[in-house]
Every structure is written in C-alpha cells, then in structure tokens.
Design a protein that fits this description.
Elements (H helix, E strand, L loop, with lengths): L2 H11 L38 H20 L5 E2 L3 H11 L5 E6 L6 E7 L2 E7 L4 H8 L8 E8 L2 E8 L4 E9 L3 E9 L8 H20 L3 H4 L1 E7 L6 E4 L6 E4 L8 E7 L2 E6 L6 E5 L4 E5 L9 E5 L5 E5 L6 E5 L5 E5 L7 E9 L3
Antiparallel strand pairs: 1-2, 2-3, 3-4, 4-8, 5-6, 6-7, 7-8, 9-20, 10-11, 12-13, 13-16, 14-15, 16-17, 17-18, 17-20, 18-19
Helix pairs in contact: 2-5, 3-5
Length: 358
C-alpha cells in the first residue's frame, strides 16, 4: 500500500485555511504579505445575467448540485457542463475537464465542479454570503493564508487567495443570484504571477446564465451510479458482495449485492451500502472486522473515507479507533480491516455498474 501517498492526501484534505487578494476600493493594489503585490483588476463593465431564465433554472440547478454532491463517490468522470469545458479550453487549452462533486464538512454546502489543470468552474449551493462562499470554494491551506476581495456589481465579485508558505495563489470571479454561486478561478504557478482576473470576470459574467441552465439540465440518471468494487490485487474476477448479508469477495456477476451506493456525508466521508443490503444496511467496522449494521449512518463504524489514488484506485478506511483501519480482503473470501501501516491489499477499483434513479 502507498502509505506515503495516503498520508499526504489525508493531511492535504484537512487544510481549510483560506487566502486571497484583489483590488482595494480606491483602485490601488492589494497589500499582500508576500511580494510582489498583485496588480489590481480593472472594474468590469459587464453586468451578470439577471433575467427570468436564470430565476427559472436556478431552483432545478440547486437540486441537481445537491443530488450529485451527495450521491457520487470521488471517481473521475466527464464534466457535464459544455460551457465550462469550452471556457477551460479558452483559458488554458484543455481538451477536456473532469467532473467533481462534494459536500462540505457538516454538510453546510454542496458543490459541482469542473476542473482541468489550473482552471476550475464550480457551482456551489449553501453559502449565504461571499465570505462564506469563498471559505467553501477555495480551500487553500497555509498558516499565513490571507485574502481580499471586491464586489464588481450586484452579485458579481472578484478575488485572489494567497498562501505564502505553500507558494499558492488562486484568483477568480464569483456570481450569485442569491440561491447558488457560479465560480471561475485559476491557480497561478507562483504567487507573483496571478491569472488575468479581468478575463475571468468577463468569461464568468458573460456565461453565468448558460452555466446555470446547463446545470439545471444535468441528467442525474446517467450520472448517479451504482458501483462495482473490486480489489486491485485480486483482479476483476472477484467483486465486493453483500448478497448473503456479509461483505465478502465473490465471483463477479450480475448480483444486487455487487452494486454499491456511496452517500457523501461531507469532508470525504461516506456511508456505503448495496442493492441487496438496502439503504439501511451499511458497511461497518468495529476496528477488527467488517460487517453490516442498520443505518442511516449515526455510528463512527458506519462512516468510511474514500481517497482516490493516482492509479485510479481508491483507499477505503475508517478512523473509528483513532487510527486508520483500511478495508482489505481477508484471504479467505471475506473482508476485514487492517491498521494504517500494516501490509495488505488496500487498493480498490470503483467501476460504474448502472444508474441509480435520483
């Protein structure tokens, strides 16, 4: 198991301090803690879309974002927003961008994201103010993290974030109709080389209405999936199966117990069930083994963290006993858990296995 990778990713996921910088009210450059200072963006003359079409599609877009954020595990998938893909191509030549969906810690926000290289287009539901949105949408770590922002027009903002210790600088534009936020941002290669904030503002304000409409039209049936779970070490001939009331590895087949659902509880944590056990029969652990218990997830042993690895596999683990215990095959056709650092087949493949009706 790649212990170093897992440790770094888990540590990175916990960094939530925020940083940014943009223009002062008097048009001067923001005073950052690290040189050189970011150039202040020019005030935008573009007014974001505010007509009836946005109002009509915003409620459905909000519902779709929440559904995707709660019902998708962290598996790479195609971004469902054509305009977001085209903006990414325009800004950095990306041929395609990946879709992401997540729930914030404590479930205080839901996000649908489209990400490629340094460019990110995100739709966020939950935050009521710009500061709350910025905290949710730009998790840039660093003890010295700072930010400043400016309001261009009603509902249209620009911002930059900066973390001197991590050498990270992120600039973007955010638009809101009061119900959901649309965010276009780029990460600069160095703190002294910010993206063109004015261009981000123009791209966002020109396309906000279309992005909301496309979010409202997302096909949830095709995107919310059951998943087949197989061990990367044992191969695709065996699948994680709950048909008989216990999580085992059985010959791969068209079985309800091999169709798994991941419900996002926020912060990368999931409750896990399958079509045989039902939504209330949750994969669980007491720190020494794996089994099913009744849900919804209220007990620590019913909550699993799912971390994607670089090779398209995933680590599935619980921190029930104040240390990480990883789900693994037990060598006898069943599954169990092992503590972080122990030798074992910890990497799992998650493959779509048919749509779940939202």
């Amino acid at each position: 198991m790649p212990r170093t990778t897992a440790h770094v990713m888990i540590a990175a996921a916990s960094a939530v301090l925020i940083a940014s910088c943009a223009s002062d009210d008097d048009g001067g450059s923001a005073d950052l803690a690290i040189p050189p200072t970011l150039a202040a963006p020019v005030d935008s003359q573009v007014t974001p879309a505010t007509d009836d079409q946005i109002t009509e599609s915003s409620a459905q877009a909000t519902s779709n974002v929440v559904a995707l954020a709660t019902q998708r595990p962290p598996v790479r998938w195609q971004c469902p927003l054509p305009t977001a893909i085209e903006i990414a191509r325009t800004l950095n030549g990306a041929a395609a961008i990946e879709g992401t969906a997540d729930v914030g810690p404590e479930g205080q926000f839901s996000q649908l994201g489209c990400v490629s290289d340094a460019t990110s287009i995100g739709i966020t539901v939950g935050p009521a103010t710009f500061d709350e949105f910025l905290s949710a949408a730009t998790p840039t770590g660093g003890d010295d993290a700072e930010y400043q922002s400016s309001e261009r027009d009603a509902g249209l903002f620009d911002y930059c974030t900066v973390s001197a210790s991590l050498g990270v600088q992120r600039c973007g534009a955010a638009w809101t109709d009061g119900s959901l936020w649309v965010d276009l941002s780029q990460t600069a290669p160095t703190p002294g080389d910010p993206p063109d904030v004015q261009r981000l503002v123009d791209e966002l304000s020109t396309n906000a209405e279309t992005i909301v409409a496309e979010t409202a039209a997302v096909d949830l049936v095709s995107l919310i999936q059951w998943y087949r779970v197989t061990s990367a070490e044992l191969g695709p001939e065996l699948s994680l199966d709950g048909t008989g009331g216990e999580p085992i590895l059985a010959p791969t087949g068209a079985l309800a117990g091999q169709r798994w659902r991941f419900v996002n509880l926020g912060g990368g944590r999931y409750e896990v069930s399958n079509a045989a056990s039902g939504e209330t029969g949750l994969l669980s652990t007491d720190g020494t083994g794996s089994f099913f218990t009744d849900g919804p997830a209220q007990l620590p042993g019913q909550v699993w963290t799912v971390i994607p690895e670089a090779n398209d596999t995933h680590l599935v683990f619980s921190d029930l006993i104040e240390t990480l215990v990883f789900l693994v095959p037990d060598g006898a056709g069943g599954t169990t858990v092992i503590p972080f650092g122990a030798a074992g087949a910890t990497q799992w493949l998650l493959e779509p296995a048919g749509a779940i009706e939202p």
